[in-house]
Amino acid sequence: MKRTYSCLAAVVLGVAACTPALKLTPSDADIVLARQALDAPDPGQRGSYGVRTLYYGSGTDKNRAEYRDSVSITTPTVDVSKMVSLGASASERNEYWGFTPKEMPLNARVWYPDGDGPFPLVLVVHGNHNMKDFSDPGYDYFGELLASRGYILASVDENFINGGIRGENDARGWFLLRHVQLFEEFNEEAGNPFEGLVDMSNIVLMGHSRGGEAVANAAAFNNLSYYPDDASLEFDFGFDIQGIVSIAPVDGQYLPTGRPVVVEDMSYLTFHGSHDGDVTSFHGLRIYDRLRFNDPDDFNFKSAIYVYRANHGQWNTVWGPHDNGPRSPRILDLRGLITPEAQQRFAEIYVSAFLDIVTKGDKRYLPIFRDHRVIGQWLPETMYITRFETSAFRSLADYEEDIDVTSGSERGVTIQGDSLASWSESTLLLRSSNRANTSASQENQGVTVGWNNRIAGADTTAHGPAARYSLHLPEGLAADWRLWSGSTFDFTLAPTNTVPGPRAAPDDGEADENQDEDAGPPARSGNSDEEEPEDPPVDLSIEIEDAAGVRARVTLSDYGAVRRPLETYVMRRGDLEANRFQTHWELILQTFSIPLSDFLADDRELDVRSIRAVHFVFDRVHAGEVVLDQIGFSDLDPAFLGSRVDGR
Question: What is the pTM of this model?
């Protein structure tokens, strides 16, 4: 496939070079504009605290002077031999480092506020890289920012388990918890620089790449008494971990008892770049979908953000743009990447806002996780897709429960299609498996529905009634869930690149001439030879119906860009691209959250306490296909989420 290049696209996106043409529509470009002022200051700006730094570690490090000569606190070594096997490289690695897995160090560099405290504790851990190209200094930008905003940030050194070994991701998570244990000791030790400074009730773990999976492992281990793979190793953690952050994570490299790790009852943030040349698919979506909220009254949330034109290494100042090592410019197409500064600016904003919510309860920042456009004036100029869910979400349909396409997840919910061209439930896929021994599955089910409201035949102006996909609620469910004007109707949706053909003509050979409000829009022209747009925009209406038959409707595009998959080319050569990727895009579903008050604004007679059906009405565009998932309601103060936002 021949690529075209567009300098106009480069200008719109704010990148320096002409990049592969993006086929921007007005709604795509609009997302870089602020739609509603956020009632909170920019969380990516430095705070009021002075910043102090120190190192702690073994004091004997053979290769790293900072952990030999500059440690302010000397820490013990630990035996991690049950989790780390060096294989054939053991002799060489042990010679280089001067220690074996039986006596590995607990090293970290720390940024902390110059103040009285106590301050929330944040640990960040790097992923796999050349073990001699030390990775832990690469999060200095987080350290400087977060310490100035009242956080203790420790960048944990795990370089000694980097390189060509495998099966060590359990150790990466365990190391994080041992470092938390150190801070518990520091906090209580008289004369320690951290005496009384650490708020041990407010802990967040962050990780990048393999470290992004490691934080999920640590969160799971934190609640266990024994190591799942060898119960002779006891755990004694139980810390107050409030949230975890996975930056471009891997997933599934560690499978305790042969099963994926499940995180429960804490907040979660993950983000990933479309042009990641290392972890080439958004594996953080798997961790996101597995994460469980068990208590709706205990507020937690999860968010996943896909950042167009971001790569893997630029989240770390040491790694940079070379996701495939020194030869990256020969293999990867680096011309369209956003700058390292832009990529790190995004990370600073979202990580800082996440921390303020989960450790300080500042829910003013919740809207940026639902819809990035509310801070468009702060964000780098590129495109974003966001997923968002809170512990207050109640599902009507998540498509995980059975193989019956007419049943929902909540008991008594039924599903119906009308005039659809296609309707099927299936496992959603990633664009690549990333490694030969991992799956290209998102490990999540969704429903795909397609429609074409035109009637087949010579007259292209003929339309039937608009197709619908409907969920019917059992009597009393809306009242049991205490739905009110402040509740929101939530779901995730993404268009595909498929456009079904016209529907078959009625048996009598005549099109339906009764085109009421549900009829699709008129055809573009009566000329049957006129070509369709290559990528026609997708839009639809969302309709709520109560027990009395009152219906109220809103337009989906008022709540976010309804965007086809973003075209992505990572490799310089087409044959390499074809070998590595199944598609030139990743299917990422966008969360839409619509306050029920907006339906009431359309029709004040609607009784939200007796909602009996929700309808996806395909009346805005004559044909298209979308994937849907996680359809339900949330009961969250709308002040935190906003409503329909005027202006583009």
Answer: 0.90
